[in-house]
Predict the structure.
Amino acid sequence: MSGGVDSSVAAALLKQQGYEVIGAHMQLGRAVGGPAPRPCCTSRTGLDACRVAAKLDIPFHIFDLEDEFREIISYFCREYDRGRTPNPCILCNRQLKFGRLLVRAEELGCSLVATGHYARVVKSGGAEEVRLFRASDRAKDQSYVLFSLRRTQLRRALFPLGELSKREVRLIASELGLHVQGKPESQDICFAPGGDYRLILDEFLPGRVRPGVILDSDGREIGTHEGYQLYTIGQRRKIGAHAARRYVVRIEAESNTLIVGPDAELHHREFTVSDVNWIASAARDAFEAVIQIRSQHKGARGTVEPMGEGRVRVRFAEPQRAITPGQAAVFYRDDEVLGGGWIESVGA
């Protein structure tokens, strides 16, 4: 229970369905930046969760996972230092919410972990038989950030909001008299409010973020940047004013260099994906799918070709903009998540 409306309603629905529910809150604050806690994990969020648990008359526990959360932030910084763009929410889901929290749940005698994610999971008889689907409300779907969960984790997962819209969730919260019914959603990375993560990089990568040169596609120096770790593929901000629109099209971490070019240079068809996690049966042959390459990408049709050793090659039917190393590529058939992995390199 994060203290938000989604996890609060999830707990309420499960109790209505006859489950024995125990509320759990992950204390993650003070992971970075000295004594001040992070907005995702302040005493206010824990208090909100505690108040909801009291309203629902369920036991409530707070688990200190600050050390584990620092590992997530460390990964976040290492990826930027490699010139890649990370997605820490995906790692947090696998390692904390359905990793460490599942261990704590077992210690309490619980067999399942439920969250307020908008996604659907379908389980059948076999120990490994489980399927993951998009939420009914496509606008709120969060299946993309759940692709890395192992089948064993999904077998222990419940997503009570998978068939609901956000409007319906807020209405349920209102009907139950939950004080979080109107609480706004967070749109930022929880430990970097407003998207400003310079202080985090400076703490985890002391001395690494430093100015460098900006080159155009022809190799001409056209400006300087504040540190390549502060940029991502497709970015236009903070690269200076130019006669024509320019965007970051490549990051060369070894030489601390940004390459910028016109929008056309951001469009590609082909890329490779590593560390693939299959939720459906692992593919042996090439197959057609809809591939989503970031959380706000609508997905596009293409071919996924297994290469062995947990890698695949993806080729879109039509070029897609800003295919970014470090982000996840998730493969769908209709609404079902077949699997996904991490974008490694971009080709033609």
